[in-house]
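hi!! sorry for the late reply, been swamped w classes. u asked for the two structures so here they r. pasted raw, havent cleaned anything up. first the sequence of the first protein and right below it the tokens
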Amino acid sequence: MKIHPIRLKPNDDLKQSLKNFAHQKNIQAGFILSGIGSLKQAQIRFANQQISTKLTEEFEIVAINGTIATTGIHLHIAIADGQGKTIGGHLDQGCIIYTTAEIIICESKNFIFDRTFDAQTGYQELEIRYRDE
């Protein structure tokens, strides 16, 4: 396992920055260990919805979870507003950093994560392969 800490700065796009990082470091099978920070705009696709919802206020990032690889990322995010109300869903492009985001990515050298179409779900889904295959 290899650990990759990353700090994003104001106005960075959270999802695009993580995609870029995966390509820059050639991460083949990674996952988020920890993720906190703040957003000044959120773009989240809620459960069973076809399109994302844009939220334009400041939020605390209370959690980010999911997989990350050069072949794609699948992340969920939980955010809290100024009153502590928490919502979450599928992270989409358009989540813009307010002050910072501190993300810790763990990379496994034993696996390769691919994204392949799954006819049953209709989505690109995680395909896990052992690296020595």
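now the second protein. again sequence first, tokens right under
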Amino acid sequence: MTQSTDNDEKPLDPAQEVIVRKLKRMSLVSTLVMVGGFLVVFGVIAYRMSTGGGSAPKWIDATLPLPAGARVISTTASDGRLVVTIEVGGITEVRFFDLQTMESRGRVTFDARK
């Protein structure tokens, strides 16, 4: 007893074979691009984790000029800046310094006496 199956595939004509080859090639290229993208993303993540990602100096040794009689209220370092809040003669000032060069980058004065 032999059984005939309807699943026997007929050979493709040449035009269909060309299309099937193009689809396989496009699928292979798409897969390679996706794998390459994943490798780049994971490489960047590994690089940033290994380098620490910080640009702030590791050691700071500086003397910052403040007016005579100034009292430091608070300091904060963030985003490459040093922010110092001082009080001079009843007037509160916030001074900004660059963490890399320790140069003054500006100041804000709060005077309640006016």
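hope this helps!! also noticed smth abt the second:
Residues 13-53 form one domain.
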